[in-house]
Amino acid sequence: MNENRRAVLKASSSLTVLGLAVAAGLIKPNVAFASQGWPKKAFESKSMDELMKALGGNMPTESADITVIAPDIAENGAVVPVGADSKLKNTTEVSLLVENNPSILSAQFMIPAGTEAKVNTRVKMGKSSNVYALVKADGKYYFAKKEVKVTLGGCGG
Description:
The protein is α+β, with helices and mostly antiparallel strands. Helices cover 25% and strands 35% of the residues. The protein folds into 2 domains: 1-38; 40-150, SoxY domain (Immunoglobulin-like, Sandwich).
């Protein structure tokens, strides 16, 4: 079996067991997140400056090798599909940021070596905003951004 595939399967099965333990009430969520190294300060950051300080990195550089996957217009701000695709070599982290949300960091993914750095999720957006894909590759941070307009009922605005 491919070693990279084995690592991904092992990590996903561990997270599944952890999730079931939390759901059954055997483990409290804050204990589960602490064991995984949950970056609390990063998720509480209100700006890019605060976030980069919490992550311990320098301000990111814009890169054409990163693509933000998001709609131009989101009809329902409660469930906006967003993602990122990084073509940068040695990508180890991919984070999704929503500039106008109360906390800028919406999701963070750790990318195992040899894994395709493409992620997708859904986020809540209170209003139109720039969505950033923040990528850590070779120990440096890079970003790409895309504006996403949020409408109420798809009327535009």
